[in-house]
Amino acid sequence: MSIRENYVRLMERIIDACVRCGRKPTDITLVAVSKTFPGDAVREAYDAGHRDFGENYVQEARGKISLVKKR
User: Fold this and answer.
1) How far is C-alpha 33 from the chain's CA centre?
2) Distance between CA atoms of 69 and 61, rounded to whole angstroms?
3) I need a surface site. Which of 10, 17, 22, 54 has the fewest CB within 10 A?
4) Tens-place pLDDT, residues 35-49
5) How many whole angstroms separate alpha carbon 52 and alpha carbon 45?
């Protein structure tokens, strides 16, 4: 299963859970931990619509940020 497919399925589950408990899906922030993942994986998640990523080190984040800013 691709990153895009996983992202879509996860967002559907989050939306379903929000509906069941009476919360707005916009109240939830899903943070993808991009630590140790290659830039291509981060770009694929970004292209799928994800915007919130977590990294431990600025040095690792810089290269990945530049990949998605080119979009």
Assistant:
1) 8
2) 12
3) 22
4) 889 999 999 999 999
5) 10
Helix (H/G/I), strand (E/B), else coil: 24: coil
- Candidates 35, 38, 49, 36; CA nearest to 6 is 49
Residue 17's contacts (CB-CB under 8 Å, 6 or more residues apart) are none
What is the DSSP track for 25-71?
GGG----EE-TT--HHHHHHHHHHT---EE-S-HHHHHHHHHHHHT-
Asked if residue 54 lies in contact with residue 35, where contact means CB atoms within 8 angstroms, the answer is yes
- The whole-number average pLDDT for the span 4-13 is 96
Question: Is the four-CA dihedral 35, 60, 8, 16 of positive or negative sign?
Answer: positive
Radius of gyration (C-alpha) of the chain in whole angstroms: 13
